[in-house]
Amino acid sequence: MSVFVEAKNMETKAGGEPYECWAESCKALKIDQKEWWDTIKRRYGEKKRQYHTMNHIKEMFAYYRVGKNKLTRPHLVALAILFHDIIYNPKYPPGLNERKSAELWLEFAREARSKGSMLTLEDTQLVYNWILKTASHKCSPMDSYDCRVFMDWDMAILAQPWKRYEKYMAQVRQEFQHVPDFIWCTARGGFLRDTLREERIYNTKEYIGEMERTARENMARELKILDCRVGFVSKIAAIIIIFANGNPKSVAVIILGLAVLVALCILFPGYKEL
């Protein structure tokens, strides 16, 4: 049975619940589990979130439960899962959500250490670095297995069956509902193309194979949908230009507007969020 199927089966079991994993890690590291849980729960329950919710964390913990025995520092990985998206604002530029999440992790870790936790400065730095890496999900051969598989669990949504992937697409789009559709389609399409050009999406042997293939198929399918939507808007723009009836001033304004639109597509800050 593949890691993917095993993890999906785990989702229905209590062992995959975020609070249980939180309490387990806090107990092992001598951290007061009651403190901070309300903050974690409140953050992931924010109304602006559609995909980056506690359900995403629950799905990651399903994989965690399956792969836990292979981890060197399982309790640190569990804390990284809980804190990696604790700050999420779709209007932030790339990397800022991850930096702010990592900073909140530091605040939590400092407080825990001040109250006698077994969490060390080295542990704190490890989790801090892992959270920052979720901005790109790129790992080097020097990175630990714990780091690499944590990235893969965060990216596992890409290899879900198409119906779940469609729901993920809709959820992420809802989070960016403030972005005009043409800009969204172009920018999101750019992210998908960049990811598909990578030699590998996943970082560990468990996920390179069936899941890698499925993820690429899903992303290519989404890209085709986005390209169709961009093509439709482009045709509308062409019709507008035709109806400008050759008026130089009208055509100039339309061309300028389209140029600005394309520039916004390239520069828009939020398209790289998973």
Structural commentary:
- The protein is mostly helical.
- It has a single domain (3-267), classed as Catalytic domain of cyclic nucleotide phosphodiesterase 4b2b, CATH 1.10.1300.
- Helix content is 65%, strand content 0%.
- It has helices spanning 3-10, 18-28, 37-44, 54-67, 74-83, 96-114, 121-133, 145-155, 162-175, 181-197, 210-243, 248-267.
- Mean pLDDT is 87; it is low at 11-15.
- The chain crosses the membrane at residues 226-244, 250-271.
- This is HD domain-containing protein.
- Keywords: Membrane, Transmembrane, Transmembrane helix.
Write a compact overview of the structure shown:
The chain is mainly α and 274 residues long. Helix content is 65%, strand content 0%.
Write the layout of secondary structure elements.
Blueprint: H1 3-10, H2 18-28, H3 37-44, H4 54-67, H5 74-83, H6 96-114, H7 121-133, H8 145-155, H9 162-175, H10 181-197, H11 210-243, H12 248-267
Keywords: Membrane, Transmembrane, Transmembrane helix
InterPro entries: HD_phosphohydro
Protein name: HD domain-containing protein
